[in-house]
Amino acid sequence: MIETRDTVILGSGCSGLTAAIYAARANLKPLVLEGHEPGGQLSITTLVENFPGWPEGIQGPELIDNMKKQAGRFGAEFQIAHLVSVDLHSHPFKLKTSAGEVHTRSLIIASGASARWLGLPSEQALIGHGVSSCATCDGFFFRGLEIGVVGGGDSAMEEALFLTRFASKVTVLHRRESFRASKIMLERAVAHPNIELRTNVVIEEVLGVEENEVKGVRLRDVKTGYESVLHLSGLFLGIGHVPNARMFHGQIDLDSEGYVKTRENVFTTQNGIVLPGVYACGDVQDRRYRQAITAAGTGCMAALEVEKFLEEHGR
Ligand code: NAP
């Protein structure tokens, strides 16, 4: 017998857990599928300094843990599973997950975004052997070594600053002259004695595939075309994220970069027409703000819309 839920939430990051708190408090007993990366991006970050309510900041994993406990206290159920396929053409919606099948009257897509890679074969071959997208997970292995961080946004600056706790030197490698990072983060990186910022360079190859460990990178200066080798023991990617919405392709509207298109923040559409009962929140639909607090805000909105939708449908 396949269970039919009032609401299923895909993802257990900041948006999914906020939606879970609201849906649980509305007595909807939401089922949260934790996804491939339980806790989302906050669970692999360090100090969160801009989430209102913690004047001294709070560690990302602790914030997520608190949210999960809060949702659990009101009756949210968690399952370590991810979505395998989805059918939104009939109602209740049908979800096949890695734990089985579940039907649901409403769906909250809070599947977030995952780290972007350069896509070089040498980079892919060395993931876990010196190439990483998570400084907080892997920084520890680079004590006393020289490493590189790719990117010019806040993620790259945050990674670089964090990695100075372990590495003897961190070189930030950015493909342009100017940085996308916020002023405060950039200033901290510039002021750090163990961080060097190199601009106008792209990575052509990660060296060390034969040795099965990162030995360095082959760089190309985009202005002069000049190629050089930089010896490194590790390479961290901080070049942004891609939305986890591929499985919805053809069922709800996605934009050219694969983000879920939403109306009035959380309503999804099918061929331009609002799809009742399916809402998206957090980074899977937000290419503009991508903050923990905005993810939480849209998570709240999605849960309130679910409540309204179910009420209108006699639940
Ligand atoms: P982002 O702002 O989109 O920056 C991505 C960076 O990676 C850009 O500098 C981009 O270069 C570069 N990049 C992208 N693809 C590349 C490629 N294929 N090769 C080389 N470089 C590439 O992403 P983010 O840094 O992850 O930040 C996302 C959001 O989260 C932002 O709103 C940010 O403020 C926020 N955030 C905040 C904090 C904090 O406040 N502590 C920490 C992390 C993130 P171009 O500049 O040339 O496009």
Features:
FAD/NAD(P)-binding domain, 5-stranded parallel sheet, binds NADP nicotinamide-adenine-dinucleotide phosphate, elongated, 315 residues, alpha/beta, 9-stranded mixed sheet, 21 strands
Q: What does the model show?
A:
The structure is a single chain. This protein has helices at residues 14-25, 60-73, 121-125, 135-138, 154-163, 183-191, 292-312; strands at residues 4-10, 31-33, 47-48, 58-59, 77-79, 83-87, 93-97, 100-109, 113-115, 131-132, 146-150, 169-173, 195-198, 201-207, 216-221, 227-231, 234-237, 241-243, 262-263, 267-270, 273-280. It is of the alpha/beta class. It has 2 domains: 4-114 and 241-312, FAD/NAD(P)-binding domain (3-Layer(bba) Sandwich), CATH 3.50.50.60; 117-237, FAD/NAD(P)-binding domain, CATH 3.50.50. The strands form 5 sheets. Strands 1, 2, 5, 6, 7, 8, 19, 20 and 21 form a 9-stranded mixed beta sheet that branches. α1 runs parallel beside α7. The longest helix is centred in the last third of the chain and has 21 residues, at 292-312. The two termini are 21 Å apart. NADP nicotinamide-adenine-dinucleotide phosphate binds next to α5. Residues 50, 116, 118, 150-156, 158, 175-176, 180, 182, 238-241, 290 line the site of NADP nicotinamide-adenine-dinucleotide phosphate.
